[in-house]
């Protein structure tokens, strides 16, 4: 049967497009509301010296879950601080608390509604099943389009992923309230409102709290995923560690997440029946806590008011002092961190995410003619799609023009001489690469774009394959990072190898793993090493275990990029 493909993906695309445009105002309202609340939370949590919050948390855990856990809390928090993850932990804590609050505020009422009406339950249950099984990564995609990159799409995606247990358990808890109690309250003539607040909810609270506890744990498990779109905190530390293959850092950040999970878990689990309730009434404890939070927030609010930045119209305040970055392990990110130091841009923050998220953010700002600063590189199709300029770099923090090298594993020359020769002879120009990139950016499948380029440039391909013996189905494993440049080049060289008798697999990885994979022989080749500057650190780490076949493209550039309509010209203007 030859049924045409149902254009489900396209429908979703147009739906999301439509939503993005139609509800732009609503989305930007939600974004600023969430961001604003989160900032207040972070400010409150980091108001005093770390030890203050540590003691408060330890006391709270002691109160809810007995003193041994209190001691555990203080020790683990001191350890987190000592390892250097305190600020990240505050970010993570704030993100999880906020997602947790959102789940309660929205989830509990929905759960109550489900318990009261069978028809609602019949609609909500399958939706919850769907929300929980759809891989959480998928939510990130529309979230970026709606809310931009940063912490908000992360919170929204965590919220969607985490809300189900709260709704389910609220529904369950209320339904489980014994029938005779309901009948009794009916007999006393209580209104349904009284019934809900005086009978059902109090009796259902343990079950509801179990749901909230699960939701908070699920939200915590989302922090690494959320960091892919720029959410800061421990998740970003883990992601950075993966991307740079930094085992130690990964373990430290992971351990910090474990500690925070235990602390949050114990507090939420025992909130309803604190261990030392007989000593101090929980109403008193929670009132003191709430007052502390509110007073700190108010005090901070007032003192902040007075320190408004003088330069309210400067590029900094227009862009929230954010530079939109890409994958945390990318060489360009290191160069940008260096540049921030070199130019003393202490107010500025480099947002970590991915190349795709960066482009989405740029596109969004560009369409609204809003100021934005991104980390950029050439060749890149974005320069032909948008009117952009590099900021001048008088300190030369980003270095000059570079080359992209082909790097293969040791032993490839003996194992697959033909493929080795082709890889060695692979070399093309910026304009070639751009041709492929533009097609891909316009929506063409990367492998199709590669074939199209190959067909149109046989003269070049013939040079690459000259004298190379054809393969016999040997497998060649190419690794690459999902940068637009590398997607283009890897697909082209992959197709050429395939046309010459090799079985080619392309594997997309992070930067560190790309180099490590070649070095330990689990991958055969890559055409993505930016040298001498951008990937210098990776190169130095692995140089004894890899074979550098030299440049396949010359004249690349890295830097900070802004749309033409932004009226600054130099990185120095950011100060
Ligand atoms: N880039 C593109 C990469 C190399 C290829 C500039 C984003 C990097 O920064 O590592």
Shape: globular
Poorly predicted runs: none
CATH architecture of the largest domain: Orthogonal Bundle
Structural class, from helix and strand content? alpha/beta
Strand content: 5-15%
As for the number of domains, it is 3
Evaluate the radius of gyration: 28 Å
Mean model confidence by pLDDT: 91
Could you say what the CATH topology of the largest domain is called? MetI-like fold
Give the tally of β-strands. Answer: 9
Spatial gap, N to C terminus: 64 Å
Subcellular location: Cell membrane
Membrane topology: Multi-pass membrane protein
Protein name: Glycine/betaine ABC transporter substrate-binding protein
GO molecular function, one term: amine transmembrane transporter activity
Question: How is this structure best described in words?
Answer:
Helix 5 (86-116) runs parallel beside helix 8, helix 7 (136-147) packs across helix 8 and helix 22 (446-456) crosses helix 24. The chain contains 26 helices and nine strands. By secondary structure, the chain is an alpha/beta fold. Strands 3, 4, 5, 8 and 9 form a five-stranded antiparallel beta sheet that branches. Strands 1-2 form a two-stranded parallel sheet. It has a two-stranded parallel ribbon with strand order 6-7. It has helices at residues 8-22, 24-45, 50-65, 67-83, 86-116, 118-133, 136-147, 151-175, 179-187, 192-221, 223-227, 234-243, 247-270, 282-305, 315-318, 331-342, 355-367, 382-385, 412-415, 417-425, 430-441, 446-456, 458-465, 484-499, 511-519, 536-542; strands at 322-324, 349-351, 374-378, 388-390, 402-409, 475-480, 503-508, 525-531, 546-563. The radius of gyration is 28 Å and the shape is globular. Helix 24 links the parallel strand 6 (475-480) and strand 7 (503-508). It has three domains: 43-299, MetI-like fold (Orthogonal Bundle), CATH 1.10.3720; 315-399 and 563-574, Glycine betaine-binding periplasmic protein, domain 2 (D-Maltodextrin-Binding Protein, domain 2); 402-556, Dipeptide-binding Protein, domain 3 (Roll). It starts with 7 loop residues before the first helix and ends in a 12-residue tail after the last strand. 1,1-dimethyl-prolinium (PBE) is lined by residues 326, 330-332, 377, 483, 485, 511, 530, 534-535, 558.
